[in-house]
Amino acid sequence: MDAMNREPGGAVRRVETHPFNGQKPGTSGLRKSVREFSQPHYLENFIQAIFNTLGAEVRGTLVLGGDGRYGNRDAIQRILRLAAANGFQRVVVGRGGILSTPAASCLIRKLEADGGIILSASHNPGGADGDFGVKFNGANGGPASERVTAAIHRESGVLDHYLTCDSAALELDRDGCHDLCGMQVDVVDPVADYADLLETLFDFDALREMLGGGRFRMRFDAMHAVTGPYAREILERRLGAAQGTVMNGEPLEDFGGGHPDPNLAHARDLVDLMNGNDPPAFGAASDGDGDRSMVLGRGGYINPCDSLAVLAANAHLVRGYGDLAGVARSMPTSRAVDRVAEARKLPCYETPTGWKFFGNLLDDGRITLCGEESFGTGSSHVREKDGLWAVLFWLNIIAVRRQPARAILREHWRQFGRDYFTRHDYEGVDSVDAEALMASLRERLAGLPGQAYGEETVECADDFAYEDPVDGSVSQGQGIRLYFKSGARAVFRLSGTGTAGATLRLYCERYERDPTLLELDTQRTLAPVLGAAAAIAGIEAHTGRTAPDVIT
Ligand code: VG1
Ligand code: CO
């Protein structure tokens, strides 16, 4: 287990340390404030815990990069020294320390690496006062399983030293091959392999014809986070979209002071543009590390639950997706994709929130497409959700069907019915209050069926547990589900990506088949369900809040 048993070569140094409390990865890696991460030994401890968990025999190749936020470059230099001292043979780093999450997954798979470390706190704010994060992905290119993250957490709580070596800072801004304390470090183009992969999945000729002629105008908002260089290369260079198609394309350490969360609240620049005079035909915005994206057509945005369903229903039109093995969605994601799966006789899986739960299904060939309500969709091409991929998938469908995005969506609703969906986030809630709310719901679950709240009556309620069909592992306590007699559903869970207090998420959905009721206002349509859910959970009584902070 201990890297100590290795023959320390050259300048390897053993540094005594003490465990930090709370190095517990959440939904997507370890996320903490920059302040917390800046404590001496904090980063090194966590990286050493990862290496110890891997086992001393796994010391081949690692992939390393991040979303470019404050602390990214310095962390890369430090991690390289730890990797060398722990006996890794090679680390492949994205130039400038940059790798989007899907591009890192792509590289791990292509190089058949042992895994990768991605430095990102995704949509959490950057800068010196913002957040930092570390994600560990395994040899399949996907987020480490719960079993592995639990082992890393345990290890972080007991380790008493880490191994590092002394070396000057490595040149990260030029491609090249280096020796660092006896380990090979390759600095590589962060974009090329990923762009090449996407080129095998989509019809780039058809896309070039659509985007290159200036007939179809689009905008991609990279929100000053990692996707700028990727979107410029793919949309502007390879596909010939007009210069300026990519907005906010320069990755900045503080994301320009913004909040790179691709939703109606945070992607304001793009939303204003799409609502302005003479809007482009299509818009998209990406999150901090490039694994999620929001898609907008003229006349409105496309809810991610619907987006997954539309991709599944139209996959046969797209070169790389002629034959779907199956589909999956995270539990709080609306059941829109289930309806497509049923019509097409495809297996459909419901997993807990977080991409790690799709890994086994993808590896086992059970699914081809999967997605989450939080603007993340992806496929078997990598083992991460992939923001730009989703944008190209949409563009490819638009190019083949020669219809605007919203028209495609409307037809989809007419064919399959519409699942009205919304998520209400109560942010910065006191953790004790939030836990009490969830605990109280859990205690009352058995008594809820039959109880009426306004127009809604509870039919059944449960605490979602998932048994992985591939390895049989069980994940408990993944969210409270309330099913109403009307067919509506409400879900409660606490976020696992925040760094301060708790965020309570309430997800509501209701299915509508009536063709005259497919274009209603979402919030108004869901008001009875939202009201019933809030009353059942006692949101105001527990948190003092009467309204959510963010609605998507
Ligand atoms: C959120 C989303 C979840 C997503 C996760 C990581 O998690 O709800 O769907 O997988 O972020 O995405 P939570 O626990 O806060 O609800 V990312 O783009 O931050 O890596
Ligand atoms: Co992300």
TrEMBL record:
It catalyses: alpha-D-glucose 1-phosphate = alpha-D-glucose 6-phosphate. Residues 23-154, 193-296, 306-416 form the Alpha-D-phosphohexomutase alpha/beta/alpha domain. GO terms for cellular component: cytosol. Keywords: Isomerase, Magnesium, Metal-binding, Phosphoprotein. One of its GO terms (biological process) is carbohydrate metabolic process. Belongs to the phosphohexose mutase family. This is phosphoglucomutase (alpha-D-glucose-1,6-bisphosphate-dependent). It comes from Pseudohaliea rubra DSM 19751.
